[in-house]
Design brief:
It is a single chain. This protein has about 70 residues and is an all-alpha fold. The chain is about 80% helix and about 0% strand. The protein has one domain. The chain contains 2 helices and no strands. The longest helix has 29 residues.
């Protein structure tokens, strides 16, 4: 992703802030998942955790591209 190498510093910082937020969301959903009794809600949390992990990996990839 060559376009990320041309990002301004504030854009890189925004990506980092988003990564931090997504990581906190994934952690919170994982903690809540252990307390949920309802199967449907547990399924939604599973889906949210899976999607968030994918998004975290994408953000990490973008940030790694900017650091080179």
């Amino acid at each position: 992703m060559a376009y990320t190498q041309n990002m301004a510093v504030h854009e890189k910082m925004e990506l980092h802030e988003l990564l931090t937020f997504k990581t906190a969301c994934a952690f919170k959903a994982a903690m809540m998942q252990n307390q949920v009794q309802d199967a449907q809600l547990r399924g939604l949390l599973d889906q949210d955790i899976t999607n968030t992990r994918t998004q975290i990996q994408e953000l990490q990839g973008l940030l790694q591209g900017t650091m080179q």
